[in-house]
Design goal:
With 272 residues, the chain is mostly helical. The chain has 14 helices and no strands. Helix 3 runs parallel beside helix 5 and helix 5 runs antiparallel to helix 6. The relative contact order is 0.08.
């Protein structure tokens, strides 16, 4: 069925996992051309999120605003606006937007969880409460925290709760090594999470080992990786080392190459 919008939507998701943002965005546009149902705002937000994560903020905002005008879902709008603001390097404003989102939807602890690590230390206790609520609600629902154990652990550590922090870091390490061993979907992300966890405990060689493997194996070079490698506090102790700088430059170059591919495609389509 050449008019099956769901097939194009699915292809777009697959290409995003593969890190091909040209094919990802092209397939989402094809899905939008064919879709006439009640969930159009979902398609619009998804497309907007991929424009945002590959560095096209204004195009992303256009699709977010279009979705908001359809369904009035202000929590989802603030959620994606927060990430777009984060991608643009305005971390405090991103956190403020995420907190506004949580006032509307109190289950969305994980949004702000991502932003507390880039704002001043006077947010430490607030970050801890957010991480505690997120962990408790996830565990109560029987959900693993997947790639966020080390984020929760960091928040606990910053307010002096070392024993509980070590528990979460150890869970991250255990799960990450299992992901890699079993070759689970997106297990390449586990290399980064393991590197961050080992770096936090000062195990530099292990951290570099996983960070270099992450640089080799990850195929999705969205803007969030550039921000993580530049600002994640886990790597503060050796951020200025030549070995780390080499990895950072590699991540930045891969993102920039994919951004330019999308830009060229947009120009060819007359959509720039």
């Amino acid at each position: 069925n050449l008019n099956d919008d769901g097939a194009y939507f699915g292809k777009g998701l697959c290409f995003q996992f593969l890190g091909d943002y040209v094919q990802c965005i092209e397939n989402f546009h094809e899905a939008l051309r064919r879709y006439h149902g009640q969930n159009l705002s979902i398609y619009l937000r998804t497309l907007g999120s991929y424009y945002s994560s590959i560095g096209f903020s204004e195009k992303a905002k256009y699709y977010y605003q279009s979705a908001l005008s359809l369904d009035g879902d202000s929590a989802s709008y603030l959620h994606q606006l927060a990430f777009d603001t984060y991608y643009n390097g305005n971390f405090v404003e991103a956190l403020n937007l995420a907190k506004r989102e949580m006032k509307i939807d109190t289950t969305m602890h994980y949004t702000s969880l991502e932003f507390y690590y880039y704002v001043p230390s006077n947010y430490d206790y607030e970050a801890y409460l957010n991480a505690k609520n997120y962990a408790e609600s996830s565990e109560k629902a029987g959900r693993l925290l997947l790639g966020r154990y080390y984020r929760v652990g960091y928040a606990f550590w910053k307010v002096g709760k070392q024993e509980k922090a070590e528990y979460y870091f150890n869970q991250q390490i255990k799960m990450g090594e299992e992901d890699i061993k079993l070759g689970r979907l997106l297990s390449e992300y586990s290399y980064y999470e393991l590197a961050a966890s080992y770096a936090f405990f000062g195990k530099k060689e292990k951290a570099y080992k996983y960070l270099e493997e992450f640089d080799k194996k990850n195929g999705n070079w969205a803007l969030w990786w550039v921000l993580l490698i530049k600002h994640d506090p886990y790597f503060d102790s050796f951020r200025n080392e030549e070995r780390f700088q080499k990895i950072q430059k590699s991540v930045e170059a891969k993102y920039q190459a994919e951004h330019e591919r999308v830009k060229k495609w947009l120009e060819e389509q007359g959509m720039q």
